[in-house]
């Protein structure tokens, strides 16, 4: 499971020798082709010729049934990049909704300033700010107001009528 390699040059439909960069696993075998981490087909690699640097030419059992652009990945059971990024946002959202520090979160996310984090998560900061304001308001002692004229009760009215 995992990433095998990534194309460094586009390969047209019908090609049998795509060029890839660094290989993270032995390339021989059947691999799923991923565009933006979305599976779009399979290829069978039967051999590999190393080139200068870390690149190599893969030899496919059959010609490519579709065009491949540079950046396409070969692998097995790769996680979607969208899902990984969603986890990043979820983690940040939970951090802020639980009252976490904005500056710490900004550093954790690798933002250049807390202002960027605040802009991205402003919708969460509003509710956190509201909760903080309510906490402070509840902590401030208030004077109990007493009515200036006591209201008469039902029994008081009976007493007056007798």
From TrEMBL:
Task: Please provide the Gene Ontology terms (biological process) for this protein.
Answer: DNA integration; DNA recombination
| Pfam families according to UniProt | Phage_integrase
- Answer whether the UniProt record assigns the keyword S-adenosyl-L-methionine to this protein: no
- Alphabetized UniProt keyword annotations: DNA recombination
Q: Which residue range or ranges hold the Tyr recombinase domain? A: 83-124
**Gene Ontology MF terms in the entry:** DNA binding
Q: Identify this protein by name.
A: Site-specific recombinase, phage integrase family
Q: Which organism is it from?
A: Frankia alni (strain DSM 45986 / CECT 9034 / ACN14a)
